[in-house]
Amino acid sequence: MSLAQFRGLFPVSSCLSLGDDVCLIDVRYDSSLSVLAHPCRFDGFLAFFCVSGHISVMINLVEFDVRENSLFIYMPGDIISIADVDETGRESLNFIVIAMTDEYIGSLDVNTSDLMEKRMMLTGRPFFHIRDDERMIAKKYVMLASDILGSNLAYKRESISSLLSSFLFLAGGIAEERMAAMKPARPGRFRSREVAENFLRLLAEWHSSERSVHFYAEKLGITPKYLSKLVRSATGKSAPEWIDDYVILEARNMLRHSDMPIKEIAGRLHFADQPTFHKFFKSHTGLTPMQYRRG
């Protein structure tokens, strides 16, 4: 889903945007949100701040319960869906969403290495409860972004870009603080995180056709063994495990949310034939593709 398609889910009156690069959306419950019940990938970065209400969001088939005063951050390449909206609280549901394309983030005036480190922290832990002092600061960012996007300033693009560069570090700082409280960072992990971030970005793009660690190592200019070592250091899983996880995740979503024949799914994931895909899927899930689909 592109930013333009995402923006199109909401009433024009609730969206402020800068072309198809960035937008600010005041989200209230609407029946059009039901489209997000189906898993999709958004071509960019999303930051959700829950003002009120409650919603269950799934990222890569892992469910997160997002409530008032929570900051939820979505990274490009992940699979997202709205798992559940509390029916009794639909009227109170209110989110502020900042959406940016990956290309736009790449154009911002930020320290790329530092930003990658912040981004890596969010793997597997994409949302945090916001303290009152953080909420007040975030509110000021949102109000200022709204004013800039709704203006006719001569340097509107440059103004909003500078503001959002700052916002990324606000969000990254919150993530860093929360993660540090959970588990002390190990010395010398920056290189591991940098390589793992680049690996995961490549994997999000190529996993449906490339399952060789050698392919990704060659893209990154390092040996397969070193790649797997660095990725395991940063994430707790080796490169082959990440590759298999992405492929299985893609397969599970196709089986669960499409009517494609299993033979076609095997072909889309570049397996030699259906029996090979059958064996791979069962070895990782304990179920055949058909058993998974029926279950």
Notes on the structure:
This protein folds into two domains: 3-182, Regulatory protein AraC (Jelly Rolls, Sandwich), CATH 2.60.120.280; 198-294, Homeodomain-like (Arc Repressor Mutant, subunit A), CATH 1.10.10. It has a six-stranded antiparallel β-sheet. Strands 5-4-7 form a three-stranded antiparallel β-sheet, with no helix packed on it. The protein has helices at residues 3-7, 102-107, 112-121, 132-149, 156-182, 190-206, 213-220, 224-235, 239-257, 262-268, 274-285, 289-294; strands at residues 15-18, 22-28, 44-52, 54-59, 62-67, 70-74, 80-85, 94-101, 127-129. α6 packs across α8 (224-235), α7 packs across α8 (224-235) and α10 (262-268) crosses α11 (274-285). It is of the alpha+beta class and 295 residues long. It has twelve helices and nine strands.
Please provide a brief summary of the model.
The chain is an alpha+beta fold.
What brief labels describe this structure?
single chain; 295 residues; alpha+beta; Jelly Rolls; Arc Repressor Mutant, subunit A; 2 domains; six-stranded antiparallel beta sheet; three-stranded antiparallel beta sheet; 9 strands
